[in-house]
Amino acid sequence: GKSGYDHYMLKEIHEQPRALRKCLRERVDGIDGSVDLDLDRLDDADRIHLVACGTSYHAALYGAQVLRERGVPAQAFVASEYDRTTLAGETPLVIGVTQSGETADTLGALRTARAAGAETLAVTNTVGSTAARECDQALYVRAGPEIGVAATKTFASQQLALHAFALWHSADSIDPERIDALRSLPDQVQSVLDDADVESIAAEYADSSAFFFIGRGHNHPVALEGALKLKEITYEHAEGFPAGELKHGPLALMEDDAPVIALVTGDGERARKTLNNVKEVQSRGAPVIAVTDGRLDVEQYANHVLTVPETDPTLAPLLANVQLQLLAYWIAARLGRPIDKPRHLAKSVTVE
Ligand code: M6R
């Protein structure tokens, strides 16, 4: 059942700390600072393609970014756009990221890859799924069953599993601080859930004409995911952009009844540039809801601030995303939408 929650989605959002702990268990070792995934070494994989749809594609975008930072050329593709020409004569390792393991578009991309001689890995939540059976190997994200059509805990677990994969694949030495950050993540997600205060902001903005999400670097996939979550359960218009792209067009959309949700974590160059984008937005009269760890002084340019704890910059998006999930949930609740079963959508999409 829903364990006292009004919807499975809210229950599953709250299950994230537990899901993430399970994802890490016996894989990320705090004592000897290593990652062990019980996979065969992928020796030929000097290039990686990730194929996925929807929320899983956002996890794939994130995973590709973490892999590239570890020196592994990696690129994410929307599965339905992946074909022989994308492979361009190469035989990369192809990772299918699919919660259900049954998504036709993703299975199709994996079959295309295999037909071209590529090695394949399924990153999935579902033991024995078609993706797990058809791929050479499987890495389970261990989020547990997800009933809500809107993917929540499985997205977090996919990101964490891909992060662990990136560390494992690029083996040599893993910074002990990164290991600590990974191991602290479940408790930090719990603290975001415990301290969350999104309902009144949701009430204030539920009738907005549109919602825009901006993020840079690791926060970019989460900006896209925040918009997808919001549109699928509220039926309102939402779009995510790389923060830097705003001034190349979307800035024309800024209005006082269309909030911009800005992800500003850390105090590095990306965060500082994003803060400049926030200023641009605010001076155009759009309300700003900032999700921040408070390392930069975002507050003075934002109408509202949603706080997350400080962590490694590569893991901050997983914390920020919890606030975006809750924002989508509470706006949908306010609008009286059928949150667990949005119209026209299915949990598992088995047609191309
Ligand atoms: O089962 P999959 O991860 O392959 O599903 C892919 C998408 O259909 C899925 O992520 C969808 O976008 C989400 N349910 C949206 O919340």
TrEMBL record:
Its main location: cytoplasm. Keywords: Aminotransferase, Cytoplasm, Glutamine amidotransferase, Repeat, Transferase. Its EC number is 2.6.1.16. The keyword NADP does not apply. GO terms for molecular function: carbohydrate derivative binding; glutamine-fructose-6-phosphate transaminase (isomerizing) activity. It is found in: Cytoplasm. It catalyses: D-fructose 6-phosphate + L-glutamine = D-glucosamine 6-phosphate + L-glutamate. GO terms for cellular component: cytoplasm. It is an enzyme of class 2 (transferase). GO terms for biological process: carbohydrate metabolic process; fructose 6-phosphate metabolic process; protein N-linked glycosylation; UDP-N-acetylglucosamine metabolic process. Residues 38-175, 201-342 form the SIS domain. Homodimer. This is Glutamine--fructose-6-phosphate aminotransferase [isomerizing]. It comes from Natronoarchaeum philippinense.
